[in-house]
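Help wanted!
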Amino acid sequence: MPLEPVAQLAPALLDSGAGPAASLLGASFREGYVGSIIAVSLYVSLTAVALSTLVSVPAAVAIGLAEFPGKGFVKSVVNTGMGFPSVVVGLVVLFAVSNQGPLGSLELIFTREAMIMSQFVLATPPITAISLAAVSGVDDGVRDAARVLGGTRIDVALVVIKEAKYGIATAVLAGFGRAVSEVGSVLIVGGNITSADGISKTRTLTTAIQLEARQGRYETAMVLGAVLVALVLTVNAIVVRFGDRGVA
Amino acid sequence: MLRATGVSRSYGDERVFRDLTIDVDAGEVVAVIGPSGVGKTTLLRTLALSLEPDEGTVTLDGTDAWAVDESARLALRRRVGMVFQEASLFGGSVARNVEYGLRVRRSWSERIASLFRLSGAADAVHESLEVVGLADKTDQPADSLSGGEAQRVSFARALAYDPDALLLDEPTSDLDPRNTAVIEEAIGEAKARGIGVVVATHDMHQAERVADRVAVLLDDGITEIGPTEEIFDDPADERTRKFISGELVY
Amino acid sequence: MAAVGAGAIVGTAGCSSTNDGGSGDGTGGNGTDGGNSAESVGVAGETLTLTTTTSTYDTGLLDAIHPDFEEMYGVTVDAVAQGTGAALETARNGDSDIVMVHARGLEDEFMRNGYGINRRDLMFNDFVIVGPESDPAGIGGTGSATEALTTIAEAEATFVSRGDNSGTHTKELNLWDAAGTDPGGDWYQETGTGMGEALNIANQQGAYTLSDRGTYISQRSEIDLTILVQGPIEGGPEILANPYGVMAVNPGVHENANYDLAMAYIGWITSPGVQEAIAEYQVNGEQLFFPEAVSEDPDFQQYVPEGWSSDDSDA
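Answered by r_m:
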């Protein structure tokens, strides 16, 4: 999976910051523990958001550019999806991938891939809704021009996407924020598993925080929380920077 | 070359025009004059093969655009260009805007290839920008242009892919005299290249300057259509005379 | 939506498998240790999914002993800490291969319904009743857990309950039941949290609570609660005993359960060597678990639901 190597890069950096911070607070993490949970968080959330973007943005463009009865209803449904409780989505995905469920034979329970599935479901409404708003905000004249100058529907869609790219980037970042900071679904379908020597299999930053909190180790939980916030800030900064440099 | 015959168009219950016939030949400029809201834009969009008329036919070189399938119609539509009152430029550079028409007419493999090397499009782009006097702004961001410059780029954008017909919807209504003059010169250049131009305008002096023929659109039909001088000096229809002299109040 | 994602995921599942192999059907040469003949029925390379309670997992015992098992067989153990009810439910659904919990009543039900087989007593620790040093209800030193709870109820001293149907909560409810008291009112607070958090909450409020000794020991340095009623390990009443059991998921009910590996695990964890390792496991300098699996004398009750005898009408 191409995103895995990318997901391995940031953890080393953050690990070197989180390690000392944690030991300052008396929390002793085994070597590589924090790095491995960061890697899992990034792998799961980045993959889920990437896949969701591939589905959501075209959907948003299709809905935004089309006129059809019930368009307002569809918009409402999408917006409502943004409020799906993550734990409920987790239960639904659990039902699907459980041995008893329709996808049971794929043996996805307690895997990172099941976590990607549930985060895909969680990230899609915000990415779609915000992209839809961005696409709707593109000047009608631009659409007209693209069409009348000889563009096919796809050409027009590409022009609109390009015009709405900052809004779409915001949408993707919102989707990532939602995915990487949720705990309900990944806990249920992933199982918060690490190997005996502390390397994470399905433990993310959020489920690790939950684990520390349930054991009453609040300060450690806070350190991990700070790592998570730093991670989200970093991703946001990268995307914004990328966007600024891309103004042609 | 481009001809609308007996076309009617309504929006819901509201009829815009009825049984209208107008045509333009290669290398000729036809002006459509009439008060605001009478339906000039709708007529132009119908001629641009974007709007299907409720009745009547629209033909390009004799082919009925709405009697053929989607892809044939797309091919016909691509031989026509339109410029609106507002420039509506895309983000990116001026060159990228002007190149759009050429880009979408290429196959996908050609398009991907052109991302990596210079294509022949650069010449056509440069040339079109020269017609509107903006060749020096080729690589500038489109949103750095003034309103007048943007509209000139919009014209170049429609010119770049060498259409058979060019439809201009009040292209200079928002422009100052200098930019207006540039556009009118560009219209002349298009005509010289054999493009059939239809320009909708409420500026009768502009019609007099650029058009070979004038169509007068009042109420829901064309009251009169004929050579420019005739329309302005000796109109056949009383309503035309009143409109031109400003007596008719709409 | 999930289905759309699944289609994409299945594609990625194939290329992101790490060294945990697949938790396959356990037969037919799945092993990755080279050199074995093609006919070998090894478990090497497989993953055992073990569901257990959060308090068991949080003691760190499993992480300490599992590497030995993993190396011995060349496998991976995925320990999923879920809480008693969820651990059993997951096994009931066939999503885990083996369960380790400490709620005898629920374990018995699990066996009776055919989901669990080959149960073994594993180890025990105990519960303690803790509270503030000031001991407002005056229960310190009581030899009876039920008496202590009755006293707390009568004094309406604040009591923190897990309230989450965990093993600890189940034990707590059994105690109230045995004491003949129905807890309720402002002084009785159900938090729905893990043991560590519950202790923190009790600490902040100067309240009493029932805790497993292990969690209490690991948190002792951070809270100001003391043990007011001891468990059987330190001479307290038997009713506060906390025995752990391990059961394999019945392959007759769930074909895909990794029965071979589950039995290997049970065999390993009930062996004298590992039982000793369990006894030697310490947190903050104190022993947490007392092994029960190895004994000269027979203990038939560990294999069947409590009180079951062959004279019973249903098999």
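OP: Thanks! One thing I noticed: Chains C and B do not touch (no CB pair under 8 Å).
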